[in-house]
Design a protein that fits this description.
Elements: H1 4-16, H2 21-34, H3 43-48, H4 50-68, H5 71-83, H6 88-93, H7 99-102, H8 108-121, H9 129-150, H10 155-163, H11 174-182, H12 185-188, H13 191-206
Helix pairs in contact: 4-5, 4-13, 5-8, 5-13, 8-9, 8-13, 9-13
């Protein structure tokens, strides 16, 4: 069950954080220019250093959301960078996914996490049913973990119960977006991409065991 008090305390920490914008932008620009570096994963090393990796992925999920103003981009990019997955075109394709197209439906921490899991467990072969099945199994692990951690997979519920005390619906109008920004929405909502990235990375690392 979600620990709302702990989550709200974390939201307050994010609102007060001194974000190193220059360093975060430099990392993102490097990937935009040169792509996401491919990595050779050492399962034993990743299992040994699991908590360190998860802490790093969570932090980067928060940072990339803050700098991109886009929760699914932040979530997916943190995992993709850590494991050397995909390319920046995938991040471009996630542009309309905050709040599931701004509709107030699925949280971007969920959609970004699922994209990352699909990249890791999936296959370039569209006829590879086994790989498709593996992605579904990973998703079936991810979804309940996310809901247990945050209390919901839906944007309005998360904003109301964890982040703001109400649903701000930032995509509804320029005025709503302005109010969202003034309420430090990009800082506070970074909580969820961090959690989504961490949970997706955790499922990937667990697959090494």
């Amino acid at each position: 069950m979600a620990d709302y008090e702990a989550l709200k305390a974390r939201v307050d920490e994010l609102a007060a954080r001194a974000w190193d914008v220059t360093a975060i932008e430099a990392r993102v620009k490097k990937m935009v220019k040169g792509g996401i570096p491919k990595k050779k994963r050492d399962p034993k090393e990743m299992l040994t250093n699991k908590e360190q990796i998860l802490d790093r992925v969570q932090r980067q999920g928060e940072e990339y959301n803050f700098i991109a103003h886009n929760c699914p981009k932040g979530t997916a990019l943190a995992v993709m960078e850590e494991f050397g997955l995909g390319n920046m075109e995938i991040i471009t394709a996630l542009s309309p996914f905050p709040g599931f197209g701004g509709t107030g439906w699925m949280c971007g921490g969920v959609t970004g996490g699922l994209i990352a899991l699909g990249l890791y467990f999936g296959s370039d072969d569209v006829l590879d049913d086994e790989a498709t099945g593996a992605t579904i199994l990973a998703a079936r692990q991810f979804m309940p973990r996310f809901e247990e951690e945050v209390g919901s997979v839906l944007c309005p519920s998360i904003q109301e119960n964890v982040i703001f005390g109400r649903y701000m619906d930032p995509a509804a109008s320029p005025e709503n977006m302005e109010a969202f920004a003034k309420a430090q929405g990009f800082e506070k909502c970074s909580l969820v991409p961090g959690i989504g990235a961490r949970l997706a990375a955790e499922i990937i690392i667990e697959s090494f065991a």
